[in-house]
Amino acid sequence: MLISTAYFGFEASDLDAWERYAGLIGLGVERSREGLFCRIDEKARRFHFVNGPADDIAWVGWDAGSQENFDHLRAHFDSLGIVTQDGDEASARLRRVDRFFHFVGPVGARHEIALGLEDAESPFVSDKVPHGFVTGDQGLGHVAFNSTDHKGDEKFMREALFAQLSDYIYQPLPDGSTMHASFLHTSPRHHSIAFAEGLGGDSKLHHFELEMNNMEDVERAYERVQAAGIAIGLTLGQHSNDRIVSFYAHTPSKFMMEVGHGGLRIDDEESWEPVIHDRISEWGHEFQPV
User: Fold this and answer.
1) pLDDT range class, residue 146, cuts 50, 70, 90
2) Is residue 84 scored above 80 in pLDDT?
3) Which end of the chain has the least Cβ crowding within 10 Å, N or C?
4) Residue 88, C-beta contacts closer than 8 angstroms, at least 6 positions apart
């Protein structure tokens, strides 16, 4: 079953800072009494920021794609004994979807299965990202969670959302420990969701990712972020598994954002063979002290 990341919701303590940050990256920004909302393509609201102290992920939205998939997933969760609840009308309006239901997944994160993502009234245009972002059948991007049981979290997502294993990264760290991470996909994007042990952090979310259509747009974003005095988490580099060339920047909340170009697609499940990589990156991606 093909489903894709549809939207990400965050509880943020400083919406003004997030508005500046999103504008700097090149997202379309909408501010209202409900919160802060951003777009990167034809969809009306891809990012939702609501005021609150958590500074962490609040929900991950998945696009069911059809009424048939929506109903099938609901029945599937029931068969697994996973408790689901309908989203109310006000919450659906905030997300600009027709309807959704939600459940609690790994690390206590809320996931939502949505139907009927609304298009915006005008095309998406960004002078900072003139070539736009990669979405379409690959969805919005990916989320990576701080985990204490990456294999257990992987098992849940494979059973619940029919996620497929992309690969693992098991990398020794300078302190003698090892980072263990599972990467999973629900669409052609190399990974829609990941779970990593050993990276530390006191938030559920380690980072979310956006992919740009053009490498020059990524390089210019990298320059803008540094010129604005925003702390870099990982320098520009290329990941070993999805081959994306990207950088990580700290955000106004407790997690980071990854911006990159050139990520792998997995279009043929039968020929794809998950492997274990022994390093996060082929080059670059040097960790920077905060």
Assistant:
1) very high
2) yes
3) C
4) none
Within a domain: 130? no
Same domain, 271 and 143: yes
Query: Do 148 and 54 reside in the same domain of the chain?
Result: no
Pair 33, 109 in one domain: yes
| Structural domain span for residue 55 | 4-115
Is 289 a member of any domain?
no
91/50 Cα distance (integer angstroms): 12
Amino acid at 79: S
Identify whether the C-beta of residue 124 lies closer than 8 Å to the C-beta of residue 41. Answer: yes
The CA distances from residue 116 to 63, 97, 273, in Å, are: 8, 5, 33
- Domain shared by 144 and 260, yes or no: yes
194 Cβ neighbours under 8 A, 6+ residues apart = 142, 143, 144, 145, 181, 182, 183, 184
This model's pTM is above 0.85? yes
- 140 and 63 in a single domain? The answer is no
Rg of the chain over CA atoms, in angstroms? Answer: 18
Segment (H or E) for 146: strand 142-146
| Total domains present in the chain | 2
**Residue 250 reports pLDDT greater than 80:** yes
DSSP 264: -
What is the three-class DSSP state of 158? helix
d(CA 85, CA 102): 5
Q: Please provide the DSSP assignment of 21-57 as one string.
A: HHHHHT-EEEEETTEEEEESSSBS-SEEEEE-S--EE
CATH number at residue 169: 3.10.180.10
Which DSSP letter does residue 129 get? S
Q: What is the pLDDT of residues 33-70, one digit of tens each?
A: 999 999 999 999 999 999 999 999 999 999 999 999 99
Which of 115, 149, 164 delimits the end of a domain? 115
Nearest CA among 43, 52, 55 for reference residue 5: 43
Which helix H or strand E contains 246, and what residues bound it? strand 245-250
Tokens 């974003």 label which residue?
Answer: 221
